[in-house]
Amino acid sequence: MTAAEVTEKSPEKKSTEKKSTEPTKRPPKGLPDELRAWIVEVTGAQDITAKQVPGGASRQAWFVDAHGVTGGSLFLRYDPREPKPGSAFHPLSMEAEIMAALNDAGACVPRVVASHPSLQAVLLERVGGETWFYLITDPDEQVVVARDFITKLAAIHRLDPRDLAIASFGPVKSVTEHLDDELAGIRARMERKSAPAPLLAFCVDWLERNKPTYDGPPVLVQGDTGPGNFMYADGEVTAIVDWELAHLGDPMDDIAWLSLRSAQDPFTHFPDRLAEYEELTGTTIDVQRVWYYRLLAEAKMTTFHGGADDRRGALVVGSPDAGNNLIYGMFHRRLLIEALGHAAGLDMARLDFAPRPGDAANQHVFEATLEVLRAAARQAGDPLAARWTKGAARLVKYLKECDRVGDDLDSDERAELAALLGDEPESIEAGRAELARRTIDGTVDVGDYVAQMWRSVQRDDYLMRVASGALYERTWPPLTDEHRSHPENRAREQQ
């Protein structure tokens, strides 16, 4: 569940998070009769009205008004599909179980009204407020809301998972044992992918070999916590939402997820928020563990869909939102490599590129296509159609840059791969895959592999910079104030 699905006033949900692997479809005309009857039964309403609202990725979101009862402003989450075994996302019934336990413990989450006994449907109280943190333009108000979120996240982390008694989690174990469960799930989903993912395979191997030695008590980790997944109004957080990735584990796991969402939607000065968290919980921020869990979070996100991720233009083919999928996929690949390098203690300085332009014979065709798409977006009466059209323009911008400077960047990468492999690969993708295989086998040094993939991903990112816009400049937020001493880090943090 996302915050955009609960709020009555939230704008159209950004394409920053979990994507369905299926093409986006138009919403159905009305709520199924079986669900309408169930809502009437559990609420005691005389009648209901229901309106589907944007948001929810592959799950539907509905505003429901139950007439003739007190507290009739409700919110329905509905997924017509059966739960997928082995999915990273909990079924709605389990998400409801988690939220009900938290609500009973006094946490700032929506109240669960009812969970359907057989269908994937959960009825919640409807909570008002805004979702997207960037809508707050007053810096002082930003700090007030951010502090309140940290206060409420810290309160959740202070809860004893044993007292929450969430049966679907199973017994409360050590942090290391819960981490083993997370890694096993990631590996299982990786092995079910329809295409090889050598970079992900290397990251999972590294994560399994380098688990933190932390023996503190586990906490309830929200996963995907932070701006965009809480709601706020009048300077305070009204609800923390989206518990479909929740699990038990290391508190630094949630700090890593918070920093990931803060990279997408800047969340005030991050070290200040971490200092507040330390004071509220008594838990010291462990920078190295946060970097480990940053890599874990990005590796987990990579298993949300079944396609290839090591390609330069990795996206979900068949989705009308492919343009937005493209730029956010690139963004997260860059964050993954940055996290891997920092976790491994390697130098992750960014490169400066000055590629030589190639033949410009087709550039005017790309520009003409962009003008057509811009005009279509302006004329589109349907906001969703306008979004998809703008996404198509992103694809064209990327192809335009590939046509303009792609050959020169590829030439440099082929030379680098040849130096590491002994021969020039048949293609960039083949070379990257072979390099990963040899690194896993131990015939290529880990540092050499990560450094090469960092160069490769930066080239991919450079080709996508025009399509990505402001996202190109964003990166992991600092964990300490020492990070701000470098001018480049200060500039990127403020984007």
UniProtKB/TrEMBL annotation:
<dbReference type="GO" id="GO:0016740">
    <property type="term" value="F:transferase activity"/>
</dbReference>
<dbReference type="InterPro" id="IPR051678">
    <property type="entry name" value="AGP_Transferase"/>
</dbReference>
<feature type="domain" description="Aminoglycoside phosphotransferase">
    <location>
        <begin position="50"/>
        <end position="266"/>
    </location>
</feature>
<protein>
    <submittedName>
        <fullName>Phosphotransferase family protein</fullName>
    </submittedName>
</protein>
<dbReference type="InterPro" id="IPR011009">
    <property type="entry name" value="Kinase-like_dom_sf"/>
</dbReference>
<dbReference type="Pfam" id="PF01636">
    <property type="entry name" value="APH"/>
</dbReference>
<dbReference type="InterPro" id="IPR041726">
    <property type="entry name" value="ACAD10_11_N"/>
</dbReference>
<feature type="region of interest" description="Disordered">
    <location>
        <begin position="1"/>
        <end position="33"/>
    </location>
</feature>
<dbReference type="InterPro" id="IPR002575">
    <property type="entry name" value="Aminoglycoside_PTrfase"/>
</dbReference>
<keyword id="KW-0808">Transferase</keyword>
